[in-house]
Amino acid sequence: MESPLMSTETANPPLSLQDQVIIITGGNGGLGRAIAFKFAEAGARLVLAATNRDTLEETRQELELVGTKVLTVPTDVRNSTDITQLVHVTREHFGQVDVLVNNAGISGPTKAVTDITLEEWNHTLDVNLTGAFLASQAVLPLMIAQGYGNIINISSIFGKRGYPYRSAYAASKWALIGFTQTLALEVGKHNVRVNAICPGPLKGDRIERVWKERARVRNIPWRAIEDKMVRMAALRRIPELEEAASVALFLASQQSSAMTGQALNVSAGTEMR
After folding, report:
1. Residue 148 catalytic?
2. 158, 157, 139, 159: which is closest to 149 by C-alpha?
3. Which of 21, 15, 17 is nearest to 142 (CA)?
4. Set 148, 169, 189, 228: catalytic member
């Protein structure tokens, strides 16, 4: 079957996702929500998955106000039954899955390695890494049968460098890049692309919570952490959620048709590897 991204290239703008069916895990807030609105502007049909039913419903209502077709499926990405149901409901409702965005993730503990509990470690890897594995595994049979597909994993620049007091988070994001590249090699022959986005800190409530917890552990003002991150960035600023969402749109579109196995930084130049 011909990829709809290829068949619509001349009919729609290059970044069009017209009528594409896209699953976004963690699609109810933060970067996932920003990606949902960016994809909606490009004409996509959306399936949002998250554990919080209330915020899922709020996001759905906001997207439908701008004319987007939205399906919400309460999902715990750690649970294989939930993931199977997510893909089943999507296929029953829309008939296809063109793009999967594995965005669901947690910050994990802010502690020295000696202080992290096994439960905290496992929980972080279960959400950030195993969730992406389960969702990818569930959509791949459909994508392979279609003859095309696109998976976008949300990693981090701290999947490319050490991150003191955030070892569980860093380990999960390093592993996610390895998973991205390995899966890209496995499924490229089926015309399925797999890429990762590696954001640095993005403006918003989530990063402020992380910085405040990090500051508490280090016994310094949290603004000092923000100032350091700004100084580390070549552009001397913290990127917006919208800027990372725009990279996701690029990877979902025909504009990136020759790209797979890549891990693109969105960090204002904090990370350049």
Report:
1. no
2. 139
3. 21
4. 169
| Closest-CA residue to 33 (of 10, 63, 68, 77) | 63
- State how far Cα 14 lies from the chain centre: 22
Cα separation, 130 vs 109, whole angstroms? 17
Are 86 and 22 a contacting pair, CB within 8 Å? no
Average pLDDT, the chain: 94
Assign 99 to helix, strand or coil.
strand
Q: Which of 69, 148, 173, 203 is flagged as catalytic?
A: 173
Structure confidence at residue 12 (pLDDT): 54
Pick the closest to residue 252 from 24, 81, 1, 11 (CA basis): 24
Cβ–Cβ under 8 Å, residues 148 and 104 = no
Lowest mean pLDDT of 39-53, 99-113, 136-150, 213-227, name the range: 213-227
Concerning whether 173 is annotated as a catalytic residue, the answer is yes
Q: Domains of the chain: which residue ranges?
A: 4-201+239-266
Residue 237, classed as helix, strand or coil, is coil
The contacts of residue 132 (CB under 8 Å, 6+ apart) are 77, 102, 104, 153, 176, 179
Tokens, residue 54:
């209330």
Q: Helices H, strands E: what count in the chain?
A: 10, 7
The string of pLDDT tens digits covering residues 33-73 is: 999 999 999 999 999 999 999 999 999 999 999 999 999 99
In terms of Cβ atoms closer than 10 Å to its own Cβ (0-12, 13-18, 19+), residue 130 is: middle
Q: What is the CATH number of domain 4-201+239-266?
A: 3.40.50.720
Q: For residues 104 and 151, give the distance between their C-alpha atoms in angstroms, rounded to a whole number.
A: 13
Instruction: State the residue for tokens 């022959």.
Output: 189
- Cα dihedral 63→134→179→112 (10° resolution): 90
